[in-house]
């Protein structure tokens, strides 16, 4: 039902939660290759509310929130990486290691990351290396205020 409420193929769902309360809160988190604006969130919210009303009746009591992931939220879908090419990522891998570096490219099965390693007093950037999506436990964009 949610995917049918999206205005085009450029948007996709990265999270959906329903609280367990007397008046449930439905939270849909959307993203897109170009990001998601407030107009798209409003459009999806109207469509989704209409679909919920059709399915459960207009008297159904719920709160609906349609939003985009915050800047501090991890990337959870491979499609999210594309718009962050050129930015710095912080990765936690399944084997427990952590890497930070510039996202140089995305591929069907993973990313190319130019890892920055610190050696005593200086940092060195390694040539880009392939990191499979399957190996990534968590990825966050490093926010820089330079």
TrEMBL record:
Residues 25-72 form the Ribosome maturation factor RimP N-terminal domain. One of its GO terms (cellular component) is cytosol. Belongs to the RimP family. Required for maturation of 30S ribosomal subunits. It comes from Hymenobacter jejuensis. Its main location: cytoplasm. Residues 75-145 form the Ribosome maturation factor RimP C-terminal domain. One of its GO terms (biological process) is ribosomal small subunit assembly. Signal peptide: none annotated. Keywords: Cytoplasm, Ribosome biogenesis. HAMAP family: RimP (MF_01077). This is Ribosome maturation factor RimP. It is found in: Cytoplasm. Pfam families: DUF150_C, RimP_N. InterPro entries: Ribosome_maturation_RimP (IPR003728), RimP_C (IPR028998), RimP_N (IPR028989), RimP_N_sf (IPR035956).
């Amino acid at each position: 039902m949610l995917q049918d409420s999206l205005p085009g193929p450029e948007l996709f769902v990265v999270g959906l939660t329903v609280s367990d309360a007397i008046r449930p809160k439905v939270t849909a988190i959307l993203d897109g290759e170009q990001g998601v604006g407030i107009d798209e969130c409003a459009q999806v919210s109207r469509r989704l509310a209409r679909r919920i009303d059709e399915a459960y009746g207009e008297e159904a009591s719920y709160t609906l929130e349609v939003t985009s992931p915050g800047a501090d939220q991890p990337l959870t879908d491979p499609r999210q990486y594309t718009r962050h090419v050129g930015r710095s990522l912080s990765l936690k891998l399944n084997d427990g290691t952590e890497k930070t570096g510039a996202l140089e490219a995305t591929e069907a099965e993973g990313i190319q990351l130019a890892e920055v390693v610190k050696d005593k007093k200086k940092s060195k950037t390694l040539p880009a290396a392939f990191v499979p999506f399957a190996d990534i436990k968590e990825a966050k964009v490093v926010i820089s205020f330079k």
